[in-house]
Amino acid sequence: MKELSPVYLSALAAQLGTLSAFLGGFAATFLATLLTLNRRGRLLTVCIGLSVTSAVAFVVTVVAATMVAAVTHPNAPPVVAVSAAGLSRVLMALGFYLGTLSLLGTLGCSGSLHSRGVGRLTALAAAIGALCVLAMTIRFN
Questions:
Q1: Alpha-carbon dihedral of residues 31, 34, 35, 38, nearest 10 degrees?
Q2: Which of 52, 60, 62, 105 is deepest in the core (most CB within 10 A)?
Q3: SS (H, E, C) the chain
Q4: What would the pLDDT profile of 29-70 be if each residue is shown by its tens digit?
Q5: CB-neighbour burial class of residue 48 (10 A; exposed 0-12, middle 13-18, buried 19+)
Q6: How many Å apart are CA 90 and CA 53, to the nearest integer?
Q7: Using only C-alpha atoms, what is the Rg of the chain?
């Protein structure tokens, strides 16, 4: 893992924590909407599974980002900074990637609940979005 300055990590954690809280709320709201549909089927089950994965991943990201912010604080005890920094950084990054990609997956498959044409459009938009996210973030790995 690359050594990054505490100031940079703190700013990154604040940004990812805020964004993940917002997107996690969106994923949870989307999940609640899917759960209230009076339908059954494999596609709905996939959408619900992706939405749950997204919401949970974003919750993990928010907690991990909070931990990163805590351990990068100038007054953090040395034992805290050493023991939690690496794991929190990994969970923050993985949670954000998983949450983002599963949210895009939810959006992509949800259109098919309406019609085949809308499903193709939402799947295409989600695939393009996932490729863009991966292309923009690949250098951070």
A1: 180
A2: 62
A3: CCCCCHHHHHHHHHHHHHHHHHHHHHHHHHHHHHHHCCCCCHHHHHHHHHHHHHHHHHHHHHHHHHHHHHHCCCCCCHHHHHHHHHHHHHHHHHHHHHHHHHHHHHHHHHHHHCCHHHHHHHHHHHHHHHHHHHHHHHHHC
A4: 999 999 999 888 999 999 999 999 999 999 999 999 998 988
A5: middle
A6: 17
A7: 17
